[in-house]
Design goal:
The complex is a heterodimer of chains A (about 270) and B (about 170).
Chain A lengths: L1 H32 L11 H15 L3 H28 L13 E11 L8 E3 L12 E3 L4 E8 L4 E5 L7 E5 L5 E5 L8 E8 L9 E4 L11 E10 L5 E8 L8 E7 L2 H7 L2
Antiparallel strand pairs in A: 1-2, 1-12, 2-5, 3-4, 3-12, 4-5, 6-7, 6-9, 7-8, 8-11, 9-10, 10-11
Chain B lengths: L1 H18 L17 H4 L7 H19 L4 H12 L4 H5 L16 H24 L5 H32 L2
Chain lengths: ~270, ~170
Amino acid sequence: MRYLLFLLRRSRIFFLFLLLEGLALAMIINQRSYQRAVFINSTQRHLGELLEATDQLTRYLHLREENEVLARQNARLQALLARAQYFQVARGDTTVDSTHQQRFVSIPARVINSSYSKRNNFLTLNQGSQAGIKKGMGVTGPHGVVGVINRVSPHFASAIPIINPNLSLTGKIANSQYFGVLQCAPELGHRQLYLSDIPRYARVDSGDAVITDSRSLIFPEGIPVGTVLDKTLQSDQNFLQLTLQMSTDFARLEHVFVIQDKLSRELDTLQP
Amino acid sequence: MKYAAIIARFILLVFLQVLVFNRFLFLGYFNPYVYILFLIYLPTTIPRWGTLLWAFGLGLAVDLFENSAGLHAAASVFLAYLRPVFFGYLTRGTEQDRSAINFRKVAPFALGVYALSCIFIHHLLLFLLESFQWAEWKSIFKRTFFSTLFTFVFVLLFQLWNFRRNRTIP
């Protein structure tokens, strides 16, 4: 009898262990199957504020580099502007209604929390639905593509970066237009990516630029992704898998832009 | 009084983990998870069900900041459940009762082996659950190995500090 009671006492601990472990696993599976705010996440207001406060401490360390990067980006944007003006003057015979020309609008935001060394990486941004951010919009940084928004709260948003295996985008080789699937892999780390399903006969050299493709319906065409490092034949022998050096360094990502496509709804009606 | 000290340690370690150690990266890749110091040194006089609940709360608190619902909670509860298995290292060669181990009086080497075992078990489960795919076993073991070493360095530093403090104040 005493032994039986002893056994029950022991198994009581075991049942508590199973209960807690089951609860934790349920949360993991829940978060994995639906990428939305079912449980706790860092887009919640108070956590977001705390993370933002701590981020302000570390931000000063990178201020100088960040300024340089922004200056360079400004220069690039100015160049684009000049080209646009030239374009309008050259076609002086037609009137261009400038309000309908704008297709992509970028919303500036700052990364207040990020991970890049885990398997499932995430970013938290300091702007949310009040700034016009919606789920599914693309995120770019000063050097190139970053990821896609997956959760939005009024003041904060979280994004899946391209270094998360749950996200795959299309990318293409800038000079030959061949397109393929961009995927990260744990063995590559946070500076490299795979671009797979490129036809075998495509001429690819290391150093070729890879850019975003308008097929993904998230980014405008031509945002840098990276440069080709290496190519190997896939196991099916028909396609090439390229290893890319990513242009965005997720270890020191700070200022980003959330890209809003004003024509996305119109495109959706054509491409179900 | 005992619980006040435990709660203080709980809050301190969660904040250290979230605000400091999550930003520490070894080779730009491996994170130390120093918060499990709380579980390693949780007094053995606390009943086992209490230990499990503390572990669950600790893991959940870290998950809250890491965007990883349940991941650290699962690994922490697992460690808390298996912890008594490693008490053998601490009581070997003495007549000590396993339910009343004083971590400050244990030989440093035994304490090191005990801490290393705890860290390894916790990290292995953590990375297994994080990846959820056995196909990535190479990456899982690499992460477990290096993160264990990295966490262990910090645990050793803490032990050294604790050891010296005990000598100066007998």
